[in-house]
Amino acid sequence: MAAVLALGAALTWGVSDFLGGLTSRRADELLVAALSQVAGVAVLALVLPLTPGTPSLPALAWGALAGIGGAGGLVAYFRALAIGPMGVTAPVAALLGAGVPVAVGLALGERPGALAVIGIALGLVAVVLVSRPSGDEAVTAAELAEQDPDRLRRGLLWAALGGLLFGLFFVALDRTPTDSGLWPLLGARGSGLTMLAVLLAVKRPARPERSAGLVALGSGVLDMAANALFLYAVRLGLLVLVSVLTSLYPVAVVLLARAVLGERLGRPQLAGVGLALAATALIAA
Fold first, then answer.
1. pTM reported for the whole predicted model
2. In which domain, by residue range, is 189 found?
3. For residue 138, what pLDDT band results from cuts at 50, 70 and 90?
């Protein structure tokens, strides 16, 4: 059941990110993220009274830490994409985002079986390959290293920070009390919205078109659903396994980009999709 919930979270996160990415082409990414968070809070307010769970200070505190990781990671990731080559920064962020909870889970004593270990390794490679942009979307790292080595270094640092903060999101939610239900997500949304509100007050972007705003809100509803699925999955299974399966959400993004936008998949992405399927089978087994 944990694997099913984790894959459901990956699929839902993938659709949410795809919609958010489309909207970010027509509106400021910080405003898109904020609208997404607001929609998530609205959904959570409706669902919380209907789901079992006991609110507590540890639940809200760990949730708030997760929210800082999620919102901060998003900002750092966007900054990395803006500075460095996508072909380098995106895989670095993806690898650390998936690798941090795996390392923490192993450090806490989680010991998956032999097949699952192979699946974890394949899954981490799949995340990196699928996250690479196809075609000539970015300057290669070698070219940028010659042209502007400082820019490449800063891009990698922002990507690493984004990946670490994404990993913090997974780990913090895993540490929430098992009887807290969805209450940790309220803490996560509170801290995330606070951070984004400060950034929006500084940047003051223009209001988006109504259609773009509606898509951003839809992305937020799906994002909250993915958060809930991950939270329940990690309470039923090992962090090292659930986090890897959940981190395969870029597979859904690239497949949607292929189906909806007609984007071509490069060989690394196709290989990543294949490895993701193999990793899923091994971990589920």
1. 0.85
2. 2-284
3. very low
